[in-house]
Amino acid sequence: MNLRISIVFAALALAACGAPKSKEAAADETAPAAASEAQAPIKAERELFDRNAGHPELTPEQKIGGAEGRSPFVGDRVVKLNAIVRRSLDVSREFDDAAPGIRAAVDAAAAGGDRAAAESAVKKIGDFHDRAKAALDDMVKAEADLKESGEYYDDSIFAGMMKFVADIESELRDEKSALEAKLGN
Questions:
Q1: N or C: which end of the chain has fewer CB within 10 A?
Q2: Does 69 reside within a domain?
Q3: Which of 22-31, 132-141, 157-166 has the lowest mean pLDDT?
Q4: Residue span of the structural domain in which 46 resides
Q5: Can you state the percent helix, strand and coil of the chain, rounding each to 5?
Q6: Which has the closest alpha carbon to 124: 150, 97, 147?
Q7: Where are the strands (E) in the chain, listed by range?
Q8: In angstroms, what CA-CA distances link 90 with 60, 166, 173, 178, 180?
């Protein structure tokens, strides 16, 4: 019984590891791969068309892939831009988690409570704002680099990225100013 199980496992292992195959079997396996590679451009075109189907109100520039049907950014550019957007998102989420405590400390100090805790809280929001400002500065530099490079990019997608980063910076700046005013700084 144990010998039979061992033989079965050995056969399975050989099959999984790629035991030598006949030329006919190898040719049969490569034929579907070649056919799917030939269909890849057609499939991509179909997907692009299908995602835009049912939206006659969209201009060619608004459709997925734009008028030319190309990627919104060239090469690794989008990875670098997304990293900047991600930094802003992280700052925003961290601030959202800390905001109730920061606001409570400032409110308590405004009511005559511990001013040192409120000052520390305002310093913390200042740190959040500094990180958001650094991300915005990096995005402005990335915009200049992008325009200088002459690479194709989708203006509307980039504008959305820029707006997101700028909005987080301005919201944190406004929040910091409001809390400092509440403290009388």
A1: N
A2: no
A3: 22-31
A4: 2-52
A5: 80, 0, 20
A6: 97
A7: none
A8: 34, 14, 16, 22, 23
Rounded distance, CA 177 to CA 88, Å? 19
47/132 same-domain check: no
Instruction: Tell whether 33 and 100 lie within a shared domain.
Output: no
Mean pLDDT for all residues in the chain:
75
Same domain, 147 and 109: yes
Q: What is the pLDDT of residues 140-177, one digit of tens each?
A: 999 999 889 888 888 888 899 999 999 999 999 999 99
Instruction: Say which residue the tokens 């109100």 belong to.
Output: 57
Question: In whole angstroms, what is the distance from residue 183 CA to residue 10 CA?
Answer: 76
Do 97 and 142 belong together in one domain? Answer: yes
- pLDDT at position 104: 94
Reference 78, options 152, 167, 164; nearest CA is 152
CA dihedral in degrees (136, 82, 162, 142; nearest 10)? 60
Cα separation of 115 and 183, whole Å? 8
Count of domains in the chain? 2
Residue 32 to residue 39: CA distance in whole angstroms: 11
pTM as predicted = 0.60
